[in-house]
Amino acid sequence: MPEIFINGQAIEARDDQTVMAVAREHGHFIPYFCWHPQLSVVGNCRMCLVEVEGRGLDIACNMPVAKGMKVFTNSEEVQAHRKAMLQFITLNHPVDCGICDKAGECTLQDYHYQYSGQRSLSHDQKVRSTKFYNLSNRILLDNERCILCLRCTRFTHEVSKSMALGVERRGDTSNIRPVEDRPLSEDPYSDNIIDICPVGALLSRQFLHKSRVWFLQPTPSVCPGCARGCTVQIWHRKPEWKLKALDQRQNESIARVTPLDNPAVNGPWICNKGRDLAQVFERVRADEPMLKGRPVTVPAALDEARRLIGAARHAVALVSNWGSNEELETFKDKLGEVFHCFVKEDWQPQPGERLEDDLLIRADKNPNTTRARELFGHAEPGFKDGTDLVLVWGEGFDFARLPSRARIIFLNSYLQPENGHADVFLPVSIQTERHGHYTNFQGTVSAFEPCFEPKPGVLHAEDLIRALAAPARGHP
Amino acid sequence: MPGRQLIMSFPVTATSHALSEYRERGGYGALAKTLGQLKPQDVVKEVTASGLQGRGGAAFAVGRKWQVVQYDDGQPHYLIANADEGEPGTFKDRWILENNPHVLLESMLIASYALNVRNCFVYIRGEFDLPYRRLAGAVEEAYAAGLFGRNILGSGFSCDIVVYRGAGAYVAGEASGLLSSLEGKKGYPRNRPPRLTVKGLYQRPTVVNNVESLSNIAWIISNGAEAFKAVGTPKSPGTRLFSVSGHINRPGVYEVELGYPWMKFLDEDCGGVPHGRAIKCVVPGGVSSKVLTGADISNLKLSHEDLWDAGSTLGSGGMIVIAEGTCMVALLQVLMRFYHHESCGQCTPCRHGTGWLHRIVDRIVAGDGRSDDIERLYYISKFNDGTTICGLGDAAGYACSGILDKFRDEFEYCIEHKRSKFGGNLECLRSS
Predict the structure, then answer these.
(1) What is the number of alpha carbons within 13 Å of residue A4 lying toward its C-beta?
(2) Given CB atoms, is B352 within the 8 Å cutoff of chain A?
(3) Which of B169, B370, B382 sits opposite A123 (nearest CB)?
(4) Domains: count for chain B
(5) What would you measure as the largest C-alpha separation in chain A, in angstroms?
(6) Strand pairing report for A407-412 and A424-427
(7) How many Å lie between the alpha carbon of A212 and the closest alpha carbon of chain B?
(8) What is the ipTM of this complex?
(9) How far apart are CA B340 and CA B399, in angstroms?
(10) Which of B186, B193, B355 sits opposite A64 (nearest CB)?
(11) Omega into A183 within 30° of 0, i.e. cis?
């Protein structure tokens, strides 16, 4: 346990730590571009230069602690060198923040204001390079903005292991380029490089020029794409920046999804499927209750559903494994006696999707199978003779498999052909409209928060279950 | 000849590089002595005692580098001869590779024995054609004679050698960049720590020595450390190969005993400057060492300590003589173009700094200099110094600030009058 001094503060460090790690633990911020907690150290940005008494300047990210060393993270010498490093980094950088998607959350921009604020000292032409280079069908690369921190290449080598990126040429004409025979588009984790890019060099094609980031707010949520249950941030427009003209759908749509750093589940990464949650949640929604395809009011539909439940002799429920812990528990509590319950797999792996790997992706493409199975068992759905009522909660079940004589109560969120075939159809809210928790395959419980108001006429499944249960108990 | 000769001690003929002639000169005697009589520790001790300094540029003691490697740590060790001789003005290793490749091979075998190395490598500059063919031929001869492979000379010691050709990057001459390149990666230098003698090639303890440093080992083992120390000066034992080029009557490679007077060497051995011109300045050891003016060197001896006192270094032994009447602005432009072109682009200050320096000097030469340009050149040099991963960034800064320190007036003249004081001349003219 060597004792070291950072800016005069005595700190007990561990032997295997670097000065960067110790400083971060104890609240001494050292700026950096290339360093990343999950990636190897390359020490090429030279932004984390600190002064060590008697040894001069060196980079903190690669400096092992030594007993009694006196580190200064903000001496005059260090400040002068930081300023100079920013001069070098911005020498050939286009400084086109006005049209850059990264502006507002760009490390270079922040550091420039914090540590330099100086105009460029150069009078010469900048080195020109490729703009809008197609790295994959999801990512664009702006080589002029790139500061060659190599986080993206290290990510593809060390985390996603696709080895898809490398550096071409040398000196100030170095370019990040995809490796010929390993396309980045086949890397299901590729979009993480957009997040870890400290500048606006790597751009999401989905998000390109869609919104300035300061108009958006992140809501913590859980990716329902597989049993891993990665914690994510769903970015959507801030209420105070609500659009009153132009395309108002923007007020209620997901702008982008980014990972929410969570060492217990996913670390700082998510897969590309998690980035595309809009494709799941922004399908056309069902917003009207129906009786055999005929629109009715919510109370009318509820009355009919209660009547069917009351009249049933043998009722089966297919419970959604997209339901939150709260919903599943309510169902068990309120309707568990009334129905014979099975867990239904709402989503199956899609064609072309990676089934499973040892980083994040799990073969079970549903978020809450763990809790659902704990409550309702592992049996596959099956229907005994004499089944006269089936409650189907959630999508993904082929109605042809239902007993032909049974009446059907269907709870679903999206506009699908089955909706009209049910005796009672009730629209329910989706994950981005409610609170809840999912339990992932390891048993870790993560919470999600609502991003948007529910649509009128749409009920939360939890309220709906209570409403279905209330009279069923009163009038058996 | 300037002092004693240890490496260039024989007349070069069409066949003097062959194994048979090398044996006639007593070649592979040191190897036989090592394998027959010495323990590995004895070899390291002998080399340490000789005080042999690295000949690649940094003049780090070879023995001290070797001592870091633990003989019995259970890991594979590697030895690499750095024959990626890319420093402008330096071509001394080329002489060894072309004319005496077996001295390198013998020394590498001795070093491998001392350091418990099973596989050693020669990383040879890709542009070297004849040196490569000579070296490859020598390796073949040595294998055929049982000097490489299993159970060498019946001693039970085994060692293999690989000759690897570089692809033309200056930065691969830097030891860690060389290892990256040898591993098949882009030749990016690595951050220290860890030192290469702790984690080098394939993350194993690795010794990287210059060809000339290694070539001295065979002589040291044959004749003993004391005999080696008797050559040269106390602080700089031995000889050095200098490759002399530029404005000089007899350019070429010379072996000079350290401590030999510099001007005497240039005037008598190298034949002085053509057309009787005065020496304006000398680049002492490759362009990465700071230039010294004719006045600076008049009383200096060719030894590490004298050069360090004068604020420069013997570096890689690439001596470039520059005659009076040469335009230093144009000279700096050539150097900066080189550094800009050869920067690997890994770390920020060098990647952008070298290009920035180049563009500013280009502009001054073109007559578009600005009043703050000299200040800016100093600024870039200052912040390149000590902030980069390898020494290349430092070197570009030294080369620039070295010339600016001594010849600032020429730059000011060029900026003010929008033309060079010496007409942009780089030749050694007959008359002024």
Answers:
(1) 26
(2) yes
(3) B370
(4) 3
(5) 87
(6) parallel
(7) 29
(8) 0.91
(9) 13
(10) B193
(11) no
What are the chain B neighbours of A170 within 8 Å (beta carbons)? 169, 171, 186, 342-345
Q: What is the per-residue pLDDT for A476?
A: 36
Q: Tokens in use for A200?
A: 């606006």
Please name the residue of chain B whose CA is at the shortest distance from the CA of residue A65.
B193
A169 in B contact zone (CB under 8 Å): yes
Beta pairing, strands A9-12 & B252-257: unpaired
Here the tokens at position B90 are 């330096």
What lies within 8 Å, CB to CB, of A106 at 6+ separation is A97, A100, A198, A199, A200
pLDDT one-digit tens code per residue, B353-409:
999 999 999 999 999 999 999 999 999 999 998 899 998 888 999 999 999 999 999
What is the pairing mode between strands B279-283 and B292-293?
antiparallel
Residues of chain A in contact with residue B352, where contact means CB-CB under 8 angstroms, are 88-89, 91-92, 172
Q: What is the tens place of the pLDDT at every residue in A169-224?
A: 999 999 999 998 889 999 999 999 999 999 999 999 999 999 999 999 999 999 99
- Does domain A290-474 fall into CATH 3.40.50.740? yes
Q: Min CA distance, B191 vs chain A (Å)?
A: 7
Pairing of β B260-261 and β A70-72: unpaired
pLDDT band at A475 (very low <50, low <70, confident <90, very high): very low
H or E element at residue A49: strand A49-52
Whether B419 contacts chain A with CB within 8 A:
no
CA closest to B190 among chain A residues: A42
Q: pTM above the 0.90 mark? A: yes
Cα B34 from Cα A141, distance rounded (Å): 58
Q: Nearest Cβ partner of B387 from A49, A92, A123? A: A49
Predicted local distance difference test score (pLDDT) of residue B393 = 87
Tokens encoding A382? 């099956």
Q: Does B420 touch chain A (CB under 8 A)?
A: no
Query: Strand (E) positions, A96-230?
Result: 133-134, 139-141, 165-168, 175-178, 202-204, 216-222
- Judged by a CB distance cut-off of 8 A, whether residue B45 touches chain A is no
Number of helices followed by number of strands (H, E) in chain A: 11, 22
Contact B335, B88 (CB under 8 A): yes
- The tokens for B308 are 């360090």
Specify the CATH number for the domain of residue B413: 1.20.1440.230
Give chain A positions within 8 Å (CB) of B172: none
Among the partner residues B193, B340, B370, nearest to A171 by beta-carbon distance: B340
- Hey, where are the domains in chain A? 3-74, 290-474
Do residues B409 and B293 make contact, with C-beta atoms less than 8 angstroms apart?
A: no
Query: Among residues B187, B206, B230, which one ends one of the domains?
Result: B230
Judge if B45 and B192 occupy the same domain: yes
Q: Are B205 and B98 contacting, i.e. CB atoms less than 8 angstroms apart?
A: no
Domain boundary among B323, B340, B364: B323
Which range of residues forms the domain containing residue B124? Answer: 19-230
Task: Specify the higher pLDDT residue, B205 or B1.
Answer: B205
Question: Nearest by CB to B349, which of A46, A56, A122?
Answer: A46
Q: Sorting pLDDT into bands at 50, 70 and 90, what band is B13?
A: very high
Three-state secondary structure call for residue A116 = helix
Alpha helix segments (H runs only) across B51-183: 62-68, 92-99, 101-115, 130-144, 175-182
Rounded CA-CA distance A6/A25 in Å is: 11
B343-376: b or e for each residue (b if 16 or more CB lie within 10 Å)? Answer: bbbbbbbbbbbbbbbbbbbebbbeeebeeebbeb
- B185 touching A, CB under 8 A? no
Domain A3-74 annotated CATH 3.90.550.10: no
The tokens for B204 are 């194993």
- Residue type at A106? C
Tell me how far apart the alpha carbons of residues A464 and A410 are, in angstroms, rounded to a whole number.
12
| CA angle, residues A376, A377, A380, in degrees to nearest 5 | 105
* A85 neighbors A47 (Cβ within 8 angstroms): yes
